[in-house]
């Protein structure tokens, strides 16, 4: 059973991407909806398998590491697989209605969409460092293509800036991988971690760790390496922006977190952990301030992503040099934060796209009067904002509460100020949008009403981000399951 599920997970998106190249937009959309169902079935099947039997390593074609490609499927991986299925399906359904099939370049959305999905699946289950690099490159190239979709000059400039940042990040990461292979003779993350911890080779690992973390921080858009993100997310089509913010930047963070949790305790130092946390804190404050200042709606949401990414990097100081129970609590809090942010930010971008479609303008001040005309999308935007602010009962509240407890238990009280202050700043830019939308128009309204299905998709994702706080324990329960070897 696991063989068939793993094959479906990896090869179905690639087959769909290749097939979509031969189809027009409408045919690609029909095929995509079928593919979403298949991916949902595979993800749920793997979730049930891990829940019942525990996590496992899987060697493709029976070739063990270091000769073969090693895949790792555990509770965290299947959680991200299921999250990808939910968010990517929602964005795909929205895109199928939002994008105009009469424009010839729109047909390339579906091949890029499926290549992106294949890369995400590869990253979530990758067990060796080079395989993670391959998945990351597939994601980056597909994401750059999606940003450039449409061919406008501004979109092409943002895509080229994104491509440059992605290539620089990849070069730094790949150089670190090369150093590791030269020093340890293997690319299996588990084997490298074993040698570092038990054979006292931390000195050899440290330069490689720094290079990889810098490259991954650039691809994740951690402050001050975030300059490429707001133009790319702000100019892309709304379903594309939702995919980029909800899933793409999480892939590079996921790899950084895996490497840190496997090797950081033995290789890194306290100052390195605190420095990364300080950059995350600066991202929260600076990104939130810039989000409040932006005149365009999608730029508000894009700079909000810069701020919300900062919270994720509190994982590094809260898991270094602390008790195992505190480290586990921090890991669980960050996991909930990633899931909550993915659901909320995808809902927020899709709702923002609906609002822009209705008023025909991307400016915040153009939203005046839209509260009477499109309250459903505005409500979805607000529900997503509740999770970003960290208010109960949202997933964002559960995540920040766990991070607050980890901060207090580890004696690092200064991160509490970041968590509380970031929530207040999030409230400021969310309520700024609401204030603009509740102003009255002097002239007669001439709004365009988008398809109701677009509003339903955004609402479902927003409700999911809100309900995550009530189901957080069930989501986290699968993370502590044991491992076994499977060929």
UniProtKB/TrEMBL annotation:
Alphabetical UniProt keywords: Cell membrane, Lyase, Membrane, Transmembrane, Transmembrane helix
Topology in membrane: Multi-pass membrane protein
Keyword Cell membrane: yes
One Pfam family per UniProt: Proton_antipo_M
Domain NADH:quinone oxidoreductase/Mrp antiporter transmembrane: 127-424
GO molecular function, one term: lyase activity
TM region(s), chain numbering: 6-23, 30-50, 76-99, 108-126, 132-150, 162-184, 204-228, 240-261, 273-293, 300-322, 342-361, 373-392, 412-434, 454-481
Gene Ontology cellular component annotations, sorted alphabetically: plasma membrane
A Gene Ontology BP annotation from the UniProt entry: ATP synthesis coupled electron transport
Top-level taxon in the UniProt lineage: Bacteria
Localization in the cell: Cell membrane; Membrane
Family under the similarity heading: Belongs to the CPA3 antiporters (TC 2.A.63) subunit D family.
Protein name per its UniProtKB record: Formate hydrogenlyase subunit 3/Multisubunit Na+/H+ antiporter, MnhD subunit
């Amino acid at each position: 059973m696991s063989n068939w599920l793993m094959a479906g997970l990896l090869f179905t998106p690639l087959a769909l991407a290749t097939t979509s190249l031969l189809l027009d937009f409408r045919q690609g959309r029909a095929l995509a909806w079928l593919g979403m169902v298949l991916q949902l079935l595979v993800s749920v099947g793997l979730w049930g398998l891990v829940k019942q039997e525990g996590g496992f390593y899987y060697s493709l074609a029976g070739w063990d590491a270091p000769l073969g490609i090693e895949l790792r499927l555990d509770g965290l991986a299947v959680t991200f697989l299921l999250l990808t299925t939910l968010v990517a399906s929602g964005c795909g359904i929205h895109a199928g209605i939002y994008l105009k099939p009469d424009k010839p370049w729109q047909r390339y959305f579906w091949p890029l969409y499926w290549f992106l999905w294949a890369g995400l699946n590869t990253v979530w289950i990758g067990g060796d460092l080079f395989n993670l690099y391959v998945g990351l490159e597939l994601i980056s190239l597909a994401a750059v293509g999606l940003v450039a979709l449409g061919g406008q000059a501004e979109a092409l400039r943002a895509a080229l800036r994104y491509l440059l940042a992605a290539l620089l990040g990849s070069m730094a990461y790949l150089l670190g991988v090369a150093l590791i292979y030269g020093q340890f003779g293997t690319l299996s993350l588990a084997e490298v971690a074993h040698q570092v911890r038990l054979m006292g080779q931390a000195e050899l690992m440290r330069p490689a760790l720094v290079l990889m973390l810098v490259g991954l921080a650039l691809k994740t858009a951690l402050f001050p390496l975030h300059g490429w993100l707001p133009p790319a997310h702000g100019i892309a089509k709304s379903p594309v922006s939702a995919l980029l913010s909800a899933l793409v930047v999480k892939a590079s963070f996921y790899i950084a977190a895996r490497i840190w949790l496997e090797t950081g305790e033995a290789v890194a130092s306290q100052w390195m952990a605190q420095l990364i946390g300080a950059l995350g804190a600066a991202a929260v404050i600076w990104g939130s301030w810039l989000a409040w200042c932006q005149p365009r709606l999608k730029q508000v949401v894009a700079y909000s992503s810069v701020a919300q990414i900062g919270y994720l990097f509190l994982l590094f100081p809260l898991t270094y040099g602390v008790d195992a129970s505190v480290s586990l609590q921090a890991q669980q809090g960050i996991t909930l934060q990633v899931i909550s942010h993915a659901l909320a930010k995808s809902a927020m971008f899709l709702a923002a796209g609906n609002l822009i479609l209705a008023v025909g303008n991307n400016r915040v001040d153009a939203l005046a009067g839209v509260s009477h005309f499109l309250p459903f999308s505005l409500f979805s935007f607000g529900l997503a904002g509740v999770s970003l602010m960290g208010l109960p009962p949202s997933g964002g509240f559960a995540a920040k509460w766990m991070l607050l407890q980890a901060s207090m238990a580890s004696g690092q009280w200064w991160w509490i100020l970041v968590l509380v202050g970031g929530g207040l700043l999030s409230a400021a830019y969310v309520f700024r949008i609401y204030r603009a939308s509740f102003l009255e128009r002097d002239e007669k309204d001439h709004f365009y009403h988008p398809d109701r299905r677009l509003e339903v998709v955004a609402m479902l994702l927003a409700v999911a981000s809100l309900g995550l706080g009530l189901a957080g324990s069930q989501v986290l329960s699968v993370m502590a399951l044991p491992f076994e070897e499977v060929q």
